[in-house]
Specification:
heterodimer; A: mainly alpha; 5 helices; about 80% helix; B: mainly alpha; 9 helices; about 75% helix
Chain lengths: ~140, ~180
């Protein structure tokens, strides 16, 4: 903090009246008790900011667990008997049940999306092959 | 100005969840009043000052954990308060002025508001409102907050030379206003 005299001296030549006014008290005071009440209000505000994220995260994880549990329950209650029409289903259901136990909903959605992407790529490559075959036949 | 000791204490307390409330209280105690007046002298109105000051403390509190300490805490807080005030002033649709009654009383040459000291101070307030916002900011920091040009430079990111010129220009302008409008 500079010496007050330094600022006073600066104003002596530059703005003498301004220099004299410097010592005058400020007549605009805040309301009585303002700073005490502000501290309280700020503490409350900051306190409410803290648990919000935790609350949201908890809600998400509870929802996630509930959904994952529902999906797991759904697959576990499916008939585990071998389906003669499509024997692959029986193998998938037990694997899927294992997967449900291990992954949460978000991760599952991620892997399902990857599968869909792979599926569409496979279809695309099949179509390209068909096109190539047609071209070859036409030659 | 708050010493380095208080700043270090605040930063130390803010590192642990167990003591972060104490850190906030220490920061508030050390800087609330100074920041209040810094903002008030820019935006003039108490209610607006209250809103801005709350925003400043919330921002400061959130940013404190990442505060690297490469500037003084005081400088950093001042910077936040200055930026918030300048943003408010630029967004504000109407120019902040004194209440109409006060201005009319002044122009009538009478003082029904109190002793002559109040009148000259109101005249000073009117003079300050003739300054551009940034110039008024520099003036306030030197004249009222008694900061060195180096400290103001750290807050505003402006060179010391430019700040001196700005302050001198503002002071001369105000002096002219005070003496010519008697």
């Amino acid at each position: 903090m500079p010496n007050k005299n330094e600022i006073k001296d600066e104003l002596k030549d530059l703005a003498p009246m301004l220099g004299q006014l410097k010592a005058r008290p400020n007549h605009q005071e805040p309301p009585d008790g303002y700073f005490d009440s502000l501290e309280q209000r700020l503490s409350t505000k900051l306190l409410h900011e803290k648990p919000t994220k935790t609350r949201v995260m908890r809600l998400w994880s509870y929802s996630g667990i509930a959904v994952a549990a529902s999906i797991a329950l759904f697959f576990l209650t499916r008939n585990p008997v071998v389906n003669t029409d499509n024997p692959v289903i029986e193998a998938l259901s037990s694997e899927e049940a294992l997967v449900m136990d291990q992954f949460d909903v978000l991760e599952l959605e991620y892997y399902l999306a990857l599968d869909e992407e792979q599926e569409s790529l496979d279809v695309e490559s099949l179509l390209l092959e068909e096109d190539n075959l047609e071209e070859l036949l036409n030659i | 100005m708050s010493g380095k000791g208080v700043d270090e204490e605040i930063l130390e307390l803010s590192k642990s969840r167990d003591t972060e409330d104490q850190a906030f209280q220490a920061m508030y105690k050390a800087y609330a009043k100074r920041l209040y007046w810094h903002i008030r002298r820019l935006v003039l109105n108490h209610d607006d000052t209250d809103d801005i000051l709350q925003d400043v403390f919330v921002k400061a509190w959130k940013g404190l954990k990442n505060f690297r300490g490469d500037a003084q805490l005081y400088t950093w807080l001042y910077r936040i308060a200055s930026n918030e005030s300048m943003t408010f002033l630029s967004k504000s649709s109407k120019k902040q002025t004194l209440p109409l009654e006060g201005a009319m009383v002044y122009q009538a040459g009478e003082c029904t508001d109190g002793p002559d000291g109040d009148l000259i101070l109101k005249k000073l307030e009117l003079a300050l409102q003739t300054l551009p916002d940034k110039q008024r900011l520099v003036f306030n920091m030197r004249y009222y907050d008694e900061m060195t040009y180096q400290q103001i430079s750290e807050v505003l990111g402006t060179s010391v030379g430019a700040l001196k010129a700005s302050y001198h220009h503002a002071a001369t302008k105000i002096e002219k206003y005070l003496t010519q409008n008697d």
